[in-house]
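Section handout 9: paired folding examples.
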Amino acid sequence: MKMKLSIRAFLFFSAVVLGLVPFSFAADNYPARPVTVIVPVEAGGDADIVTRPLMERVAKILGQPFVIVNKPGAGQTIGYREVYQAKPDGYTIGMGVASLITAKLQGFLPYDYRDFTLMGNFWSANPLIIASTKTSRPFKTVQELFDYAKSHPGEVSLATTAVGGPFWNSALMIQERTGIKFNVIPQEGSAGFVLQQVAGGHTDTGISGSSAAKPQIDAGNVLPLAIIGPNRFPGKFNFIPTLKEIGYDVSFRTFGVVIGPPKMPKDAASKLIKAVETACKDPEYQSLIASRFDTALYQSPDEFLKSADEDRKNLRAIFEKTGLLKEKK
């Protein structure tokens, strides 16, 4: 009898090692080794800039390295696919931005934020309209830009993130709400690529996140024209108006939510939720994100779902109106 039990135990643990039976019991010791964090933008993009210091704090809390791996491209969907298809053991997680909502609406992915394991939102940001100081027609104010663009449809170049990315969607929303037609030039990447185009004088204007734009603003290569959100930035850049306060009902937010593959062990997910919340609320992290004119705002998975559902409703209506709704039933 003992021999049979020993053989059964040996076979069971061999199967666990080979991945043939669930490894959920190991979640009690999670994490027992380094965790890979897929960031769906290039190094230096806004999402990358805010995720790295957060994960440094999560690593200290949980006692294992959290290793950032950048997987940019295809409107962030390359990174999302890698997270979604990863083994659901908690050792490959990622972060999502606003395209986690829109990719399914636009037919780029068959799943969206509701299909991942969510560990909470840690970052909220509003895009910024910026103008190059190196082109033949440097715009000084957003009203000057809009007036010129209205009378010269399709002439003013506007760099954005890739098709389906947050800043591309911001441009779509601006055009739909204002009736202005820009020459939208999507970049295969995130804000870092947008800044290269605008700061280098290759495009007249662009839409970027404030974290990535700040060094180029400080250097005088780009001029901030307006915030696509409800509130002005505090401190040094408080002079930048919002679109809403100058008469344009346009507001768009992006976010940073920690995601994992579907069906992650509850214990591992719970540990990550607590660690992400603690890291996000760390005073030094809060101060760091505020210095980049963004907000370190923690939302639990349920709170995030509520706000994301509202964002999805609004964006779906715009895509439907503009003929860009490609969601597969």
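Moving on to protein 2 of 2.
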Amino acid sequence: MEAQKGISGFSDTQEELERVSAAKSELDDVKGRTLDGMSEMKLNSMIAEKKIALAPIIKELRPLRQECQELTQEYEERKAQYDSCAAGLDSNRSKLEQEVKTLREEMAQEENRYHQLNCMKQICEMQMQRALEETRAYVSSDPLERKKAIREVYMKNIAEQDKLREQQKAVRENHGANMKQVKMWRDLEQLMDCKKQCFQRAQNQASRGPAVEEGPEDWLVL
């Protein structure tokens, strides 16, 4: 059939190509495995070199790691002690601050009380001194000194008040008569004003018009 179509030898060529392709694929697989193996060997070699290089550092790091753990544990323990101590100190500080505040308030109250007592003491001393002077003036034989005595001043004031009471009583008793007299004076004042107005009108009429026969004049006799 291949000879009829003019393509004789096509099958053989196809088979040969397939064998070559299979051989190439196998060779590529072998090459890839070889390269992978070489890469793995190189990587393992590099890892081994790094391990050898890091071995001293790791050897030094192990005791440092243990020391770090011990220091961390010690830090946590001391931190717990510090927190407990700080809490206690804060509590004591608050208590002391409250005590100081209370003592300051008490001190301020005592200072005020001291000043009040001191003022009262000075007032009492002044009163005692005045009482002594009053006693000396009262028992003195000098009339001028006796007049300075508070008792004499009080007696004089009492006498003046009694006199004022008597005057007030007299004013009250004469109030009705005085009011009547005041009313009379007011009526008199109104009457005088009325007379004055009548006289002024008469003068105005005389100056504007003919003479008018005047009647007898009214005069107020006091």
